[in-house]
Design a protein that fits this description.
Blueprint: E1 9-13, H1 17-33, E2 40-43, H2 49-57, E3 65-70, H3 77-86, E4 94-100, H4 106-115, E5 117-120, H5 129-146, H6 153-163, H7 168-173, H8 175-190, H9 198-204, H10 210-221, H11 225-236, H12 244-262, H13 270-277, H14 282-291, H15 296-315, H16 325-345
Parallel strand pairs: 1-4, 1-5, 2-3, 3-4
Helix pairs in contact: 2-3, 3-4, 5-6, 5-8, 6-9, 10-11, 10-12, 11-16, 12-14, 12-15, 13-14, 15-16
Length: 354
C-alpha cells in the first residue's frame, strides 16, 4: 500500500479479521504520516450512506481526509447506491476505506475495483468447503509461525476440525479465523521449541461449543427458529455431542454479557464492553453487536429464561419424555430456545421450570 500512490477508495475485507484490522491500521498510519487528518469512522449499520458520501465530499484544508466505513457487508445494494454514485468521480482529497468481514454488496465492490483497490484476507466469497478448509489449515500454520513456532500439517488440520464452525454466520463474522489465531498463539507458547503435533493439539485445544455459542445467541437474538434449532441439532449430534447443560451454561454466559452491554447504553464501544464483561477481541465485538440488536428489557428476560433452563434440565417433567433422558433434555432446551425467540419478537414467554 505504501509503495504506490494513495487510492481514493479501498475495500478491505475477509474472514481473517486480524489481518483486516492490521491492513486498516497501516492505512490510517500512512494517511497520518503523510500529513492527513485522523480517520473519521462510520458504522454501515447506523449511518446512512448519504452521510458517508457527505463526509467524503467535504473540503479538506489540512491534507487527506480518511473516511472509514465499518461493517460494509451489512449494506444492501440499494443502500450502497449513494456510495457507488460517488465513486464515479471520487473526491481526490479523500480516501474511503470500506471494511467488513464478508464481501460488501456486489455493485459497491465493483465500483471500488474501478476507482481503487480491493484487499481480501481470507477465502473468497464463493470458496467451496474444501477450499475454505484448506485456507483455514494454512491460516493455522501461518499464525503458529508468526508466533515463533512450527506445526505439523496433520496437527493444523486437527485444530481446524476442533475449532471451525462450518456455517455461513461464522464465515461472515470472522469468528473462525479469530478463534484459530487464539489457538495458534496458545500452541506456539506451549511448544517450547518443538513442532506442534496432534497430541499437543488434543491436549490443549478442547472440542468445546464456545465458538458455536456466539452463533446460537446470534440466531436466538435474530428471532430465527430454523437457525437456532439447526445449531442445537449440530451440538447434539456427531462423534462428540455437547451436553444440554453445557449448552445452557455457555449460552447463559453470553446472554449475561449482552445484558451487561445493554446496561452501558447506546453510546457504548468495544472498550466499554470489555471493561464491563471481561471479554476482549472478537467476543467483546460480538457482544456489542448483539446488544445493539435487542432492548435491555428483552435481553434481561431472555437471560432469565436461559438461567431458568438450568433448573428445568434437572427437574422438569418434560425431560422425562422421549425414548431416553437425552431426548427429553433436548426437548427442554428446544422449548427454551423458542421462548427466547418469542421474547425477542415481542410475543412474550413464560420464565421458569416447566
Amino acid at each position: 500500500m505504501a509503495e504506490t500512490p494513495l487510492e481514493p477508495v479501498y475495500a478491505i475485507w475477509g474472514e481473517d479479521r486480524a489481518k483486516v484490522e492490521r491492513a486498516l491500521a497501516r492505512l490510517v498510519a500512512r494517511v497520518e504520516n503523510e500529513g492527513g487528518l485522523p480517520a473519521e469512522r462510520y458504522d454501515a449499520g447506523e449511518t446512512p450512506s448519504s452521510d458517508v458520501v457527505g463526509a467524503c465530499e467535504a473540503l479538506s484544508l489540512a491534507g487527506t481526509r480518511l473516511v472509514v466505513l465499518e461493517h460494509a457487508s451489512e449494506l444492501k445494494s440499494a443502500d450502497a447506491k449513494p456510495i457507488v454514485d460517488y465513486l464515479v468521480e471520487p473526491n481526490p482529497a479523500t480516501c474511503l476505506a470500506i471494511v467488513s468481514s464478508a464481501p460488501p454488496p456486489g455493485p459497491l465492490l465493483e465500483a471500488v475495483k474501478r476507482a481503487g483497490s480491493e484487499l481480501v484476507y481470507g477465502p473468497g466469497a464463493k470458496a467451496s468447503r474444501r477450499e475454505r478448509t484448506a485456507w483455514h489449515v494454512s491460516h493455522v500454520e501461518q499464525e503458529v509461525g508468526r508466533f515463533g513456532a512450527a506445526i505439523a500439517p496433520a496437527a493444523a488440520r486437527e485444530v481446524v476440525e476442533r475449532v471451525v464452525v462450518d456455517r455461513p454466520e461464522a464465515h461472515k463474522s470472522g469468528a473462525n479465523a479469530l478463534q484459530l489465531t487464539q489457538e495458534a498463539r496458545k500452541l506456539a507458547a506451549a511448544s517450547a521449541g518443538q513442532t506442534v503435533d496432534v497430541g499437543m493439539v488434543e491436549a490443549l485445544v478442547p472440542a468445546h461449543p464456545d465458538a458455536r455459542a456466539y452463533l446460537l445467541s446470534d440466531a436466538l437474538l435474530a428471532g430465527s427458529v430454523s437457525d437456532a434449532l439447526g445449531l442445537l441439532e449440530e451440538l447434539a449430534s456427531g462423534d462428540d455431542p455437547v451436553a444440554p447443560i453445557v449448552i445452557q451454561a455457555t449460552l447463559a454466559r453470553q446472554l449475561r454479557a449482552v445484558v451487561e452491554a445493554c446496561a452501558l447504553g447506546p453510546g457504548a464501544d468495544v472498550d466499554a464492553v470489555s471493561g464491563a464483561t471481561g471479554q476482549s477481541g472478537f467476543p467483546a465485538r460480538k457482544t456489542l453487536e448483539q446488544s445493539r440488536a435487542i432492548t435491555r428489557d428483552a435481553a434481561e428476560r431472555a437471560f432469565a429464561r436461559v438461567a431458568a433452563l438450568e433448573l428445568e434440565l434437572r427437574v422438569s417433567a418434560v425431560k422425562e419424555l422421549g425414548r431416553s433422558p437425552d431426548d427429553g433434555e433436548r426437548l427442554v432446551i428446544e422449548q427454551a430456545a423458542r421462548d427466547v425467540i418469542a421474547i425477542v419478537r415481542g410475543d412474550g414467554a413464560p420464565v421458569g421450570a416447566g
